Amino acid sequence: MAYEGILLGMGNPLLDISAVVDDEFLQKYDLQLNNAILAEDKHLSMYDELSSKYNVEYIAGGATQNSIRVAQWMLQIPGATSYMGSIGKDKYGEEMKKNSKLAGVNVHYYEDESAPTGTCAVCVVGGERSLIANLSAANCYKFEHLKRPENWALVEKAKYFYIAGFFLTVSPDSIQLVAEHAAATNKVFSMNLSAPFICEFFKDAQEKVLPYMDFVFGNETEARTFSKVHGWETDDVEQIALKISQWPKASGTHKRITVITQGADPVVVAEDGKVKKFPVIRLPKEKLVDTNGAGDAFVGGFLSQLVQEKPVEDCVKAGNYAANVVIQRSGCTYPEKPDFN
């Protein structure tokens, strides 16, 4: 099977500025653990404070880019993955390009002249993380960039697509174009619920593209928010996963499978009107470094097997393996080679 360019991701490339902070810092900026938000004016001084007061690490991030990097790492096949998104023409942008090339991902960034490369503050307390994204250049992705022949060629070549829900805030037109292409050509299109605020405030954009999703990923908090927003009156993650999987589809080629992670609790998979649960790999508390990137890593591991046409059980196993590796390290990083079979 030809793997070159088989998986394409699109999203918001962000440089993670990651640090272990204290509860006081969280309170000062009104932050909650296990949450992801967009930066408001009250958060803007936080980035400098992080860099000056705490021991920070800079890691090429952004949800989709994390998942694509992890899939690439799991596959160990050069150029199997591609990625598009918008960065600025600055040192963070250069850092991002260098990072991605080292990871073996074929990146086609749109480079915005006017805005700095997007950043994401990753505030870690007790292994749990709070994410505050300042999109900047990531917010400037242009639909026209996708339609350039050299970029559309990546779409034509790919057989699997993955886009985090965060990209709905930036370029829903780009998502729609790729989703319709996937439906018309029997390719596999997948997205992530990504954050409670996406389910709440970008409900219409999310609903418009939902019929095209063959795989829907998310965590328990996002699933419950999705249920609440749609008036389903249930907090039961298994029921919610089922209902999402049964949402009408734009194309009948592939059924929809919903995959919901629940931290240390089993992964819930809904397909064909049934729910299966898969236990995660147990990790002693003292080995947990931080949960940032755990969900992204899970998706990356899952996709690495999906593109090889492995059964869903194997995909979940690989997802759990990748997440387990990443939570034992700072940020969405991994050793040189995976040890997965």
TrEMBL record:
Pathway assignment: Purine metabolism; AMP biosynthesis via salvage pathway; AMP from adenosine: step 1/1
Gene3D superfamilies xref list: 3.30.1110.10, 3.40.1190.20
UniProt EC number: 2.7.1.20
Superkingdom of the source species: Eukaryota
Ranges of residues in domain Carbohydrate kinase PfkB: 27-335
Keyword ATP-binding among UniProt keywords: yes
UniProt enzyme class: transferase
A molecular function GO annotation: kinase activity
Keyword Nucleotide-binding in annotation: yes
Keyword vocabulary terms for this entry: ATP-binding, Kinase, Magnesium, Nucleotide-binding, Purine salvage, Transferase
Catalytic activity: adenosine + ATP = AMP + ADP + H(+)
PANTHER family listed in its UniProt record: ADENOSINE KINASE
Family from the record: Belongs to the carbohydrate kinase PfkB family.
Function in brief: ATP dependent phosphorylation of adenosine and other related nucleoside analogs to monophosphate derivatives.
Protein name: Adenosine kinase
Species assigned in the record: Prunus mume
